[in-house]
């Protein structure tokens, strides 16, 4: 007699839905893609779609997305440095005050010190260059000073940077009793974006095409390099799919920023100054990629290379993973920690340049609560407070998420205190999610 065959039960819809996350995770591991980054992109898409519905379609417009990219730049720049700070098991609460102090110093320099002290007239072409150099050097010096006290003075970073938060903010009032300083140098203002502080249509397309070629080529070169040294490589189909997605995202972003035209009055003024006849429908001048966005991309590339490809970055991750083991292995932990805060100060200087130029003024409130947004961006991007874990691209995406929340709530006319409540909840939720992931993995 033949044995009876037990039929295999058909999975229910609930069982299939429960298997989807596991299947998605397996697919992501096969494609060698960071699942946290995918989750962050999915969360950003949900936020954008939700706000677009809530605002009646005004969120996902070229104008708002262009503004969102510029508004996210300053926080994203500092968030790339905050990743290394948190990875090394430290914290920097002074970045907002540091930004305000550096920005106020640069404003004083280009409106009073350089024209009067150096004899350079207002609008001199060297003023904006000297101002940028001053901001970067001052930021690096302040960061190294705090890092030295933390590393060699054995004072917790929380205390040192909390003191810095108070000191740098207080020094602003020592300059000019906290008065607003404006306007700033015309060339310096271009670094803050705006219609004239952008690449324009063809410059943006050129950058987009070059970036696409570099990214796609890099994916295949990375695959060849990993195969050469016997490392695990992602399937060819995954490499092709990632290349196509990267090309669509980059060129799509260029198309969006080019779809945002100059304001009509500014376009007419430009036409009058250059002898251009205005057509009946008005002169349409695509804005393109703003300079702050280009600066952010450049910073993110350099910081990613520093964190993943240089000995300094690997030392920082080793310190965050196990400080005692890192020191026993020969890593100069004190020097590395001091340099981490030096990098953070330098990036605060870059961010101060962008924010001050964008406002075309220095005010006492410059950078207030920026430390909350910067830390939140890094943590939402996957950086763990326990140290040793964090990515630069994740922090940049985290900054976009934070700014998207604020921008969407502003369009919905949500008051500022409620915005802070939402940001605080999101920060706690991100830390809780990271702790849950760690418990699950162990």
In short:
The protein has 442 residues and is mainly α. The chain is 73% helix and 0% strand.
General description of the model:
The chain has 442 residues and is mainly alpha-helical. It folds into two domains: 37-46 and 57-197 and 310-441, Orthogonal Bundle (ABC transporter involved in vitamin B12 uptake, BtuC); 199-289, no CATH class. The protein is globular. The protein has helices at residues 13-30, 35-54, 62-87, 95-117, 125-153, 157-176, 186-189, 201-228, 236-258, 264-273, 291-309, 311-321, 323-328, 333-359, 370-380, 392-411, 416-441. 37% of the residues are buried. The longest helix is centred in the first third of the chain and has 29 residues, at 125-153. The model has no long low-confidence stretch (mean pLDDT 87). Helix 3 packs across helix 15 and helix 3 packs across helix 16 (392-411).
First CA to last CA: what distance? 50 Å
By CATH, the architecture of the largest domain is named Orthogonal Bundle
Per the CATH scheme, the topology name of the largest domain is ABC transporter involved in vitamin B12 uptake, BtuC
Rg measurement, Å: 24 Å
Mean pLDDT: 87
Characterize the largest beta sheet: strand count, sense, and whether it forms a barrel. none
Please state the overall shape, judged from the principal axes of the Cα atoms. globular
Which keywords apply here?
single chain, 442 residues, mainly alpha, ABC transporter involved in vitamin B12 uptake, BtuC, 2 domains, 17 helices, 73% helix
Topology:
Elements: H1 13-30, H2 35-54, H3 62-87, H4 95-117, H5 125-153, H6 157-176, H7 186-189, H8 201-228, H9 236-258, H10 264-273, H11 291-309, H12 311-321, H13 323-328, H14 333-359, H15 370-380, H16 392-411, H17 416-441
Helix pairs in contact: 2-16, 3-11, 3-14, 3-15, 3-16, 4-5, 4-6, 4-14, 5-6, 5-14, 8-9, 11-12, 12-14, 15-16, 15-17, 16-17
